[in-house]
Design brief:
single chain; 467 residues; alpha+beta; endopeptidase fold (from Nostoc punctiforme); 6-stranded antiparallel β-sheet; 10 helices; 50% helix
Length: 467
């Protein structure tokens, strides 16, 4: 089970940067992301360029003999999907984080300014009643001393507790202790008292006004920074949206030209590129749906989609499956009539029975299996358990389970099978089935939470598929 930590919790399934189109094909090289801000980032950027060049070279080798214009279009879509868009996603994610941080700092300063202004208003009201020379703390403590000092043990108490030998020392000591115990919500007044524990109201008012002037300058600067950061984040979002629109257009054009491909190698290479572009588009649509749902009132059960929009790239072409299945999640407190995923079931697969929404732990392999099947229009029960349990649990919900791969089927790995976790097993989704007995799967949490990677496996009847 892999539990790799991600630094930004916004959910989106990023396309893997590597994929084997069929057995024996060279894998497209993974493409790390970087921003050239430091020496390390410069090195990463150089590696990214080298890997991108290597990726293109390997893809073109698969497209050998294909019309040059068509080959260029396939390479362009692949680069856009696996290099340009992930880089734009990472930039948007960084900008979102910066904007959120800047806004948080601006809000905190605004709150402090409002608290100081409230202190000023309250003090001005008191001054209107008693004048500027009135010393609240001194008057209160002095009155207490006058009432209790003579003919009592108060003098002994003062000496023991504060070390004071006179009423004046006792008053000043108590004022100092009072200043130390003040809360941060009264930071402005607290600062004023710290300057002089015997301040009268007029002096305290001046100190608060000075504090307000300083806070206002800081708050104005923070607000301007927040506006700039928000504008930058919006610009990054717009750029990413333009790239995705470009990808949609390129994919549509390429789909209409597939009949020009003759060799199986070229056809499957093109199919791989189209598939990755389609998955990215579906994941983007999913993110928009989650964002819109999160904005609706009385929607406390929704997950906040803020933060990273899925710029992670994976790339595992056959390593260990691993991955916690994340069969957790809480049962709805008041289950309602199960809903059928949009698009309806495909090819008789799936079921609306037991489908209460994606209740699996976010980012885990079970979460992705449910979500990917939902994107394909296939219903999946919400509580099939760990990935290794799906093939056992599925028949009770009316799902067909067999050893035959089919697009959209969930591959329930046995515990320890092909690197699956020895305790939880693993689950993936079949993306394509080839005539030579191999099939392509997508899976989450092999390279980290929310990181979607791809592998090509060979079917000898050893796998359990949930349809």
């Amino acid at each position: 089970m892999l539990r790799l930590r991600v630094t930004r919790p916004m959910i989106a399934a990023a396309l893997a940067a590597t994929l084997c189109a069929t057995a024996g094909f060279a894998a497209l090289a993974p493409v790390p992301q970087a921003t050239a801000d430091t020496y390390t980032d410069l090195v990463n950027a150089q590696n990214q360029q080298q890997n991108a060049a290597s990726r293109e070279a390997q893809l073109r080798s698969q497209l050998s003999g294909v019309n040059a214009d068509l080959a260029d279009k396939i390479v362009e879509l692949d680069t856009l999907t696996n290099v340009t868009i992930p880089a734009a996603q990472a930039a948007e994610s960084t900008a979102n984080d910066a904007a959120a941080k800047a806004q948080s700092e601006a809000d905190a300063l605004a709150d402090r300014l409002a608290a100081a202004q409230k202190d000023k208003e309250n003090l001005e009201a008191e001054i209107a009643k008693t004048g500027e020379d009135y010393d609240d703390a001194h008057a209160a403590v002095a009155q207490m001393a006058r009432e209790s000092l003579h003919g009592s043990v108060a003098s002994d108490v003062m000496s023991m507790v504060t070390g004071s030998t006179t009423t004046k020392e006792f008053v000043n000591s108590m004022q100092t202790r009072d200043a130390l115990s003040r809360t941060e919500s009264n930071a402005a007044s607290d600062a004023a008292v710290t300057l002089n524990t015997s301040m009268n109201r007029g002096e305290r008012l001046k100190a608060i006004e000075e504090q307000i002037t300083q806070l206002k300058a800081k708050a104005d600067t923070a607000a301007a920074t927040a506006r700039t950061a928000a504008a930058d984040a919006q610009e990054k979002r717009s750029s990413l949206e333009e790239l995705r629109n470009t990808g949609e257009a390129k994919r549509a054009e390429l789909e209409s030209m597939q009949d020009q491909l003759e060799s199986d190698v070229a056809k499957q290479a093109a199919q791989t590129v189209l598939l990755q572009s389609k998955v990215d588009s579906l994941n983007n649509q999913y993110e928009k749906e989650r964002w819109e749902a999160a904005q609706k009132p009385n929607n406390g059960n929704q997950v906040n989609p803020g933060g990273n929009t899925g710029g992670n790239t994976g790339g595992n072409t056959g390593g260990n499956t691993g991955g916690n299945t994340g069969g957790g999640g809480t049962t709805p407190s008041t289950p309602t009539t199960p809903t059928t995923p949009s698009g309806g079931n495909t090819g008789g697969q799936g079921t609306s029975n037991g489908d209460y929404g994606n209740a699996y732990a976010a980012g885990q392999c079970t979460w992705w299996a449910y979500e990917r099947r939902r994107q394909m229009g296939i219903g999946t029960p919400s509580y099939l358990g760990n990935g290794g349990d799906w093939y056992v649990s599925a028949p009770s919900y009316g799902l067909r389970v067999d050893h035959n791969p089919e697009v959209g089927a969930a591959l329930s790995f046995l515990r320890g099978q092909d690197g699956a976790d020895a305790t939880y097993g693993h689950v993936a989704v079949v993306e394509a089935v080839y005539s030579n007995g191999t099939f392509l799967i997508s899976e989450s949490n092999v390279a980290g939470l929310y990181v979607i990677t791809y592998r090509t496996l060979t079917n000898y009847g050893q796998y359990w598929f949930v349809h």
